[in-house]
Write a structure and sequence with these properties.
The protein has 90 residues and is of the alpha+beta class. The chain has a domain of 57 residues: OB fold (Dihydrolipoamide Acetyltransferase, E2P). The protein contains 1 helix and 5 strands. A 5-stranded mixed β-barrel has the order 1-2-3-5-4.
Length: 90
């Protein structure tokens, strides 16, 4: 009888603890980034922004960047991979 109680206890423990830790939590925080520099080159839909920290790939679905080639600009957006997607331009 003790043997069955121990086995039943183990089965219940396995069932109750089986779901612990299996849910993968992603705490992705999307932060706005501001960059300043000269918009230098266009390559397809991606532009190169020359900043004090280096070259940044930027693109935008909201702002027409063609009008700002060879000009100093300040952009705000979020990174996806190594490309900054611009939402706001000054």
């Amino acid at each position: 009888m003790k043997k069955y109680l121990i086995i039943a206890g183990l089965i219940l423990s396995a069932i109750s603890f089986g779901g612990c830790g299996s849910a993968k939590q992603t705490n992705t925080v999307e932060t706005l980034v501001t960059k300043e520099g000269m918009l230098t080159i266009k390559n397809g839909d991606v532009y190169l922004l020359s900043t004090a920290d280096g070259i940044v790939n930027i693109t935008s679905n909201k702002v027409n960047l063609d009008d700002y080639l060879k000009k100093e600009i300040k952009v705000e957006g979020m990174f996806s991979g190594d490309t900054l997607y611009v939402d706001k331009l000054e």
